[in-house]
Amino acid sequence: MKVVLVNGSPKAKGCTYTALCEVASALEKNGIETEILHVGTEAIRGCMGCGTCKKLDGKCVYNDSVNVFIEKAKTADGFIFGSPVHYASASGALTSFLDRAFYAGKSDLEYKPGAVVVSCRRGGASAAFDQLNKYFTISNMPIVSSQYWNQVHGNTPEEVKQDLEGMQTMRTLGNNMAWLLKAIDAGKKAGIDMPEKEVKVSTNFIR
């Protein structure tokens, strides 16, 4: 089993990366393979809503790290998205990345566990955390929780490591993700099928 961790920070080896590494370490101790994909250092275009991805078998018309992720998602079992807190929100790069990844590649994400990790100096973490979890709740994805909201505090990687509760929250998140992945795998082996999807009904409020 494998979990893809996405780093949405413009600092590839900064505070968000430090938190993701702690989660990845816990996953690997549980026998789960991990890969960290850095996307925050790129200039990522936002979704144009052009719908071309529907004609390209789930690939975005802009060929960048979004398509790299969508391809990895086909064989991944779970996902963790990490972001620094910018103005009480996720980074612009990660927001653009997720808008396109979930619009184009949703079918490769559905029914796979997801989680988010946010890193802040002082405040705004819970608002960014709420924003990012909404991608899961519109995509039939189980959300993996921890002993507290998945956040770390610090202005440098060294300060993040001093946030002992935050780092413990990251390890607990990794352990919980590993447990859920193994439980899902055991269910599949026991013959438990995924839920049968109904044909989607769309209701517009203006007619």
TrEMBL record:
<dbReference type="Pfam" id="PF03358">
    <property type="entry name" value="FMN_red"/>
</dbReference>
<keyword id="KW-0288">FMN</keyword>
<feature type="domain" description="NADPH-dependent FMN reductase-like">
    <location>
        <begin position="1"/>
        <end position="150"/>
    </location>
</feature>
<dbReference type="InterPro" id="IPR029039">
    <property type="entry name" value="Flavoprotein-like_sf"/>
</dbReference>
<dbReference type="GO" id="GO:0016491">
    <property type="term" value="F:oxidoreductase activity"/>
</dbReference>
<keyword id="KW-0285">Flavoprotein</keyword>
<protein>
    <submittedName>
        <fullName>Flavodoxin family protein</fullName>
    </submittedName>
</protein>
<dbReference type="InterPro" id="IPR051796">
    <property type="entry name" value="ISF_SsuE-like"/>
</dbReference>
<dbReference type="InterPro" id="IPR005025">
    <property type="entry name" value="FMN_Rdtase-like_dom"/>
</dbReference>
